[in-house]
Amino acid sequence: AAWVHLPLTAFWFVGYFAFFATTLWPKARRRPRYWPPVRAYAVAAAILGLVTLAMQPRLVVWAPLFALPLGVGLWAAAARRERELLSGLATVVGSGLMTVVAYAAGPGTDLSRAWLLALVQFLYFGGTVFYVKSAIRERGNRRFLLLSVAAHAAATVVVLVFSPWLALVFLGLTVRAALVPPLGASPKQLGIGEIVSTVIVAVVSLLTV
User: Fold this and answer.
1) CA-to-CA distance for 73 and 69, rounded, in angstroms?
2) What is the separation of C-alpha 68 from the centre of its chain, rounded to a whole number of angstroms?
3) 120-143 core/surface letters (b: 16 or more CB in 10 A; e: else)
4) CA distances (Å), origin 70, targets 12, 121, 179, 206
5) Whole-number Å distance between alpha carbons of 20 and 133
6) Is the dihedral angle over the CA atoms 181, 182, 185, 189 positive or is it negative?
7) Structure confidence by residue, pLDDT tens digits, 135-194
8) Of 110 and 153, the one with more pLDDT
């Protein structure tokens, strides 16, 4: 890791807090008491972003890539549609891109591996968006359940191209996507399962991609 990863990581976390606070503000009809967190996190994120750029100026070239997912997220919040599929997938895209940015910050130079890891993250967390919705908000919706299973199956085929071991993990996730939602698992149970799955995907992808 490079020293720049410290402010970069802090910027990413604080930036997410700023984004979350900003999405709450329009939902609360811009009540004054919701503004201070927006301002505080935005200022802190700006400072951390400037520190990061001061340490690694070339990272600025990646900023435009985040405009679309950020814009979609803010639009969804303003329209009170932040729980819709598009908003969730936009957030996943932004998260995956941070992997490439971290690689670009150094000292690693293999951006092809970084893009593959970002793809794995998008496929996994994108599938999670479908999976959680099929188990909670769309529970009982057979069409959405089939869509979720299809998304997981497609992801399995994609990762099979470059990591058979990871494909086995995604195959397991596909089976989970088909069997768990109809069982009526609680949000807590789903959350615990996601923590375990995230760790497994992270470890296998880092070892095999």
Assistant:
1) 6
2) 14
3) bbbbbbbbbbbbbbbbeebeeeee
4) 13, 18, 33, 27
5) 20
6) negative
7) 998 998 999 999 999 999 999 999 999 999 999 999 999 999 999 999 988 999 999 999
8) 153
Question: How many C-beta neighbours within 10 Å does residue 166 have?
Answer: 25
Spacing of C-alpha 142 from chain mean position: 25
d(CA 184, CA 189): 10
Range of weakest confidence among 38-52, 86-100, 122-136, 167-181: 86-100
Taking the C-alpha atoms of residue 100 and residue 152, their distance in angstroms, rounded to an integer, is: 23
In whole angstroms, give the CA distance from residue 188 to residue 169. 22
- Which pLDDT score, from 0 to 100, does residue 73 have? 81
Q: Is residue 1 pLDDT above 70, yes or no?
A: no
- For residue 64 the two structure tokens come to 């435009």
Mean local confidence (pLDDT), 95-104: 90
Locate 31 and state its tokens.
């009540």
| Residue owning tokens 């088909």 | 178
Upper half-sphere CA count for residue 92 (Cβ side, 13 Å): 19
Encoding tokens for residue 24? 């709450």
Tokens at 201, concatenated:
């995907």
DSSP state letters, 129-146:
HHHHHHHTTTTT-HHHHH
pLDDT score of 201? 96
